[in-house]
């Protein structure tokens, strides 16, 4: 059977190089979970009451609230580990490099530039991103940039990204291995990963990577990882409202 003229033409068409995309946001999706306040209660009460049914554990809402707050306040942390949340996260590579500092209670699987061609999606700060750092290390603040600084940042980043991705494509087209060619790509490239944690490890993460008016210990996160943290926090708050309320009430310090 011979190909139709249309099919032959399609096969002969050169592959069109993808145009770079520039983003100022991040993606966080809750993929799956086994996480509820009852998980905390079940784990905590086994030490004094042995095995109990879910109905028995949750029959007194005020008692449940009080127990979770007690555990949080007095830093009995292990009952907060008997749950699981898996998030799909798409963010710049430099965000993931900060993420990897959180190792206890976390599991990660990130897309690989060795095994797939990386797509040209790059981070460019939006107009709300504060650009200027004032003060010395350990005691500094970020302030709004000028219109000229924002224009410069956008222009330079976009042109640099385009040049880097063109070099990457040129190397791939010449037969250079993906794991070698990826070396020319900047940390502003978007990557994606699955990140799995429990409530205790997530609280440690949020305590360091977000700013909050109820935090007993101040934190100074980079804005981009804070954006990820805020989205993860919103999902967790819906799953475990009693635990989330106790976390805030007790200064956002992980038990």
UniProtKB/TrEMBL annotation:
- Look up the record and give one Gene Ontology term from the biological process aspect: methylation
Q: Which SUPFAM superfamilies does the protein's record reference?
A: Thymidylate synthase-complementing protein Thy1
Which coenzymes or cofactors are required?
Answer: FAD
Q: Name one GO molecular function term.
A: thymidylate synthase (FAD) activity
Q: Which InterPro entries match?
A: Thymidylate_synthase_ThyX, Thymidylate_synthase_ThyX_sf
Q: Copy out the cofactor comment.
A: Binds 4 FAD per tetramer. Each FAD binding site is formed by three monomers.
Q: Where is this region: Disordered?
A: 1-23
Q: Which reaction does it catalyse?
A: dUMP + (6R)-5,10-methylene-5,6,7,8-tetrahydrofolate + NADPH + H(+) = dTMP + (6S)-5,6,7,8-tetrahydrofolate + NADP(+)
According to its UniProt record, this protein's enzyme class is: transferase
Binding positions (FAD): 78, 101-103, 110, 198-200, 204
Protein name according to UniProt: Flavin-dependent thymidylate synthase
Gene name of the record: thyX
């Amino acid at each position: 059977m011979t190909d139709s003229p249309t099919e032959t033409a399609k096969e002969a068409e050169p592959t069109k190089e993808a145009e770079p995309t520039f983003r100022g946001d991040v993606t966080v999706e809750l993929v799956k979970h086994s996480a509820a306040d009852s998980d905390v209660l079940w784990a905590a009460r086994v030490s004094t009451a042995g095995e109990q049914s879910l109905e028995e554990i949750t029959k007194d809402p005020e008692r449940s609230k009080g127990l979770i707050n007690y555990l949080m306040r007095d830093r009995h942390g292990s009952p907060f580990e008997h749950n699981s949340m898996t998030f799909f996260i798409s963010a710049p590579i430099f965000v993931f490099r900060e993420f990897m500092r959180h190792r206890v209670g976390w599991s990660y699987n990130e897309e690989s530039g060795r095994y797939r061609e990386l797509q040209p999606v790059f981070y460019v700060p939006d107009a709300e991103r504060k650009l200027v750092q004032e003060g010395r290390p350990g005691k500094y603040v970020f302030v709004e940039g000028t219109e000229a600084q924002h224009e410069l940042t956008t222009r330079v980043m976009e042109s640099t990204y385009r040049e880097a991705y063109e070099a990457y494509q040129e190397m791939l087209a010449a037969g250079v291995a993906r794991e070698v060619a990826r070396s020319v790509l900047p940390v502003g490239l978007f990557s994606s990963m699955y990140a799995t944690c429990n409530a205790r490890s997530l609280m440690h993460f949020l305590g360091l990577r977000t700013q909050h008016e109820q935090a007993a210990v101040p934190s100074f996160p980079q804005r981009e990882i804070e954006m990820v943290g805020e989205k993860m926090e919103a999902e967790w708050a819906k799953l475990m409202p009693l635990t989330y309320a106790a976390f805030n009430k007790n200064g956002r310090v992980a038990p």
